[in-house]
């Protein structure tokens, strides 16, 4: 009898606990922090913008090019100049997207070049004298440190990684192989146009090199890289129009030259006939 009463009381207590748990309100769901949500949304939007910026730029350029009927871009390109140059920091620097950075670099290099030109100092001489001064100063300070009870200068250890050396050598090797292949193709006499282009280019370089020193020539190349693409981008339509007219005129003059002189050479005429067949 007592056991039956105890069992009944235990079952009633269990039922009361179950009912109490069911009636207890659940805690409200934890709300996500708005700052984290906004941060994730901003990250997704920025990644989408960065990935689609070049694509949208290309699309806009294609639409503008199609609207201009009869226009041919320089070198037959189908993409905007910013994308052709890499669409990165290098393109931004060349096209003066960041005017402060591009102007600072251009002004600094111009100032250094003017200092060399005004003083008549040569670059190789300046580098050698600077190294002599630095090495002499460090050598004397290292030997005098023991006499004046001063700790000697600790030189930082600089190690060039093998990966960097390997990638650099591979890049230089690829460029050298390209030059060798071009020289072989030109010297083989198979392509007359390429032969004429290489000869004229080398002759122009020899003439320009006789006018300027190596430092001045380097500065002119640097200044051209930072000015010519910018001017071309601002006057793209006019430059492309003049370039197309000039290319048509060059083809006409080449046809006249071929008809009057080049076809008289048996080697050149045989090569031309072989290409046509």
Can you give a write-up of this model?
It is a single chain. The protein is mainly alpha-helical. About 75% of the residues lie in helices and about 0% in strands. The chain contains eleven helices and no strands. The longest helix has about 35 residues, at about 35-65. Residues about 25-50 have low confidence and may be disordered.
Key structural traits:
277 residues; mainly alpha; 11 helices; 77% helix
Please, what is the average pLDDT? Answer: 75
Helix content: over 70%
Number of strands: 0
Query: Can you tell me the overall shape?
Result: extended
Residue share in β-strands: under 5%
Order of helices and strands: HHHHHHHHHHH
Distance between the termini: 118 Å
Structural class: mainly alpha
Name the poorly predicted regions: 26-51
Number of helices: 11
Largest sheet: none
Q: What's the SSE blueprint?
A:
Elements: H1 2-23, H2 34-67, H3 81-84, H4 89-94, H5 99-119, H6 123-144, H7 162-187, H8 192-211, H9 214-234, H10 236-260, H11 266-276
Helix pairs in contact: 5-9
InterPro entries: Reticulon, Reticulon-like
Domain Reticulon: 90-276
Organism: Linum tenue
Précis, in short:
With 277 residues, this protein is an all-alpha fold.
């Amino acid at each position: 009898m007592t056991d039956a009463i105890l069992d009944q009381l235990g079952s009633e207590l269990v039922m009361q606990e179950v009912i109490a748990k069911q009636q207890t309100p659940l805690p409200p769901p934890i709300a996500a922090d708005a700052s984290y949500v906004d941060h994730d949304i901003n990250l997704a939007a920025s990644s989408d913008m960065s990935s689609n910026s070049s694509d949208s730029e290309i699309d806009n350029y294609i639409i503008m090019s199609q609207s201009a009927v009869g226009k041919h871009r320089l070198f037959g390109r189908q993409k905007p100049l910013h994308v052709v140059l890499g669409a990165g920091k290098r393109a931004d620097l060349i096209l003066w997207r960041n005017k402060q950075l591009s102007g600072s670099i251009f002004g600094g290099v111009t100032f250094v070049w003017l200092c060399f030109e005004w003083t008549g100092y040569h670059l190789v001489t300046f580098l050698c004298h600077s190294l002599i001064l630095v090495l002499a100063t460090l050598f004397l300070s290292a030997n005098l440190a023991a006499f004046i009870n001063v700790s000697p200068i600790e030189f930082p250890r600089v190690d060039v990684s093998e990966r960097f050396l390997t990638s650099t050598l591979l890049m230089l090797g690829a460029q050298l192989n390209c030059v060798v292949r071009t020289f072989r193709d030109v010297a083989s006499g198979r392509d007359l146009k390429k032969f004429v282009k290489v000869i004229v280019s080398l002759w122009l370089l020899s003439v320009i090199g006789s006018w300027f020193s190596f430092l001045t020539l380097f500065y002119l190349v640097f200044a051209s890289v930072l000015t010519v693409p910018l001017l071309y981008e601002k006057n793209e339509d006019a430059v492309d129009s003049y370039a197309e007219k000039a290319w048509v005129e060059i083809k006409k003059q080449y046809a006249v030259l071929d008809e009057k002189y080049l076809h008289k050479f048996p080697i050149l005429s045989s090569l031309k006939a072989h290409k046509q067949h």
